[in-house]
TrEMBL record:
It comes from the Bacteria. This is TIGR02206 family membrane protein. It holds the Pfam family TMEM164. InterPro entries: CHP02206_TP0381.
Length: 218
């Protein structure tokens, strides 16, 4: 993961060249969609496809699908959300994976490829395309998450699932273990998400303030 991040930063000028730019963007999108299709094909073949676990209502899956559109269309509006949900959500998933399979199982490899790409994609748009998150991006992200919560909660109710861990905490150790019992940890999680967004935004805060001052002086 870190090698890819260094590569994106080190070769951002090369990746702006149209041939490289198109190739890398579409390769990322292909891997996103390919990993998701591959996952469902494996679940179906293994006989474990289930409406309570296999629908695309996990936050990282939603972010993955949005990132696929973002990386192809260069949508800034989607970037504003995926920058936070992708980087924060995927980092948490990588550090505390909710996974029952070890390397070299397909599910293990697919899981980490998808989540690493979910960090790379918004960084590509940041360093190569020059996109930047703003305070308004944090606001839009929180609105997006609060729209998702009742929708996903309804899906959980109908399917008996635990998408976005809104029904109960994951079986494996996670950040949620420090946020109180259900359902109160959902409120704590919102606060943690907001704090996380501001932490990830810190490197861009000074620049946004500088740009704002310049616009006032012009």
């Amino acid at each position: 993961m870190l090698v890819g991040i260094v590569f994106l930063y080190q070769y951002q000028d090369v990746l702006r060249q149209i041939e490289w730019n198109i190739t890398v963007r579409y390769a990322i999108a292909f891997l996103f969609i390919g990993s998701e299709i591959g996952l469902h094909m494996w679940e179906w073949k293994a006989g474990i496809f289930d409406l309570g676990t296999s629908l695309p209502f996990e936050l990282c899956t939603i972010s993955l699908l949005l990132a696929s559109i973002m990386i192809v269309t260069k949508s800034y509006r989607i970037y504003e959300i995926v920058f936070f949900t992708g980087i924060i959500g995927a980092s948490q998933a990588i550090l505390t994976p909710n996974l029952q399979y070890a390397f070299p199982h397909f599910r293990f490899i697919e899981y980490f490829i998808a989540h690493v790409l979910l960090i790379w994609a918004p960084l590509f748009m940041t360093w190569v395309e020059g996109y930047r998150p703003t305070v308004q991006s944090i606001k839009r992200t929180m609105i997006f998450l609060n729209i998702l919560i009742p929708i996903v909660s309804f899906v959980n109710y109908k399917t008996g699932g635990n998408y976005m861990f809104l029904a109960h905490k994951p079986e494996t150790a996670s950040l949620l273990d420090m946020l109180g019992p259900h359902p109160y940890y959902i409120i704590s999680l919102e606060l943690a998400a907001l704090i996380g967004c501001f932490i990830v935004y810190i490197p861009f805060a000074k620049r946004e303030k500088h740009v704002h001052k310049e616009s006032l002086g012009s």
